[in-house]
Amino acid sequence: MTSIKNSITGLVLEYDSGIIPPPYSHVFRLALDWSKGDLSTALDLHYTEREELSEEEIFDEGFTPDDDYRYKGQLNSVWIKPLQQLFDKTRWTSKDIEDGGITVTAIEKGKDEGVKIPSNQEEWQLMAQDLIQAIYETAKKEAPLKIDYRQVEGDQLTDCSLTVHFSVREVVFEKNGTSRVVNWDFAIQLMKIVFTPDYHYELAKEEAGTKRGAYINCGDGYWHELGKGVVNIDPGFDAVKKIRIGFTDLIQGE
After folding, report:
1. Which domain holds residue 188?
2. At what angle do helices 121-138 and 80-89 cross, to 10 degrees?
């Protein structure tokens, strides 16, 4: 008997941010079709409820008045297997998602199998975000995400970087002019932690520090010192320490 994951030829992901206020509130529909072996993709993303906001208010939050985006084209087929694996392990729920969430519709040989609500909402939302980022890179709308890191211990200075290529689902770690591909899940988890603490830009520098410590540049040209310019928000979660450990493991080749 053919398993479900092998019989599915596509998925449709639909998301509504729910109660999140504008300019962040948005909806999207992401259609994925691998029935012919490649990965055909169609994205329709729309930001909602911005009518009462001024352009200045929108710009102040880091957006523009025209952030809606549509794409129709191909993505690298490397994404097909992770999608199949996530679908195969997912448990479905009848729980309402009126306050926001994502739904999944499986397509089997061109037939719509009906809308399902995944119980592992966060995993599906993260998958959708990764796919949208892959679309942005493929369409040259955005460049790959790159984090620069400097570790200074005594007279030893180590510069390295971590670059996430969503378009090909690959993460490259570079140190001292040499590079290697690192585990995707480890790197994505580290990237998530990198953006967890609070960054104090009034303490940021345009050059990395040379005194003992750790320094990070999240791609905007500013260097922040961990523990001083980068501080934890949640006292119960030491993100700064986890960032240090993550990059130390990469530097040591683990």
Report:
1. 145-251
2. 170
Span 151-196, pLDDT tens digits = 999 889 999 999 999 999 999 999 988 999 999 999 999 999 999 9
pLDDT reported for residue 6? 60
Mean pLDDT, residues 128-137: 97
Q: State how far the Cα of 222 lies from the Cα of 200, in Å rounded to an integer.
A: 11
Nearest to 194 by CA among 239, 148, 245: 239
Domain count, the chain: 2
Residues 111, 213 share a domain: no
Q: pTM for this structure?
A: 0.89
Residues 150/139, Cβ–Cβ less than 8 Å = no
Same domain membership, residue 167 and residue 47: no
The residue to which tokens 């961990």 are assigned? 226
pLDDT tens per residue across span 9-24: 999 999 999 989 999 9
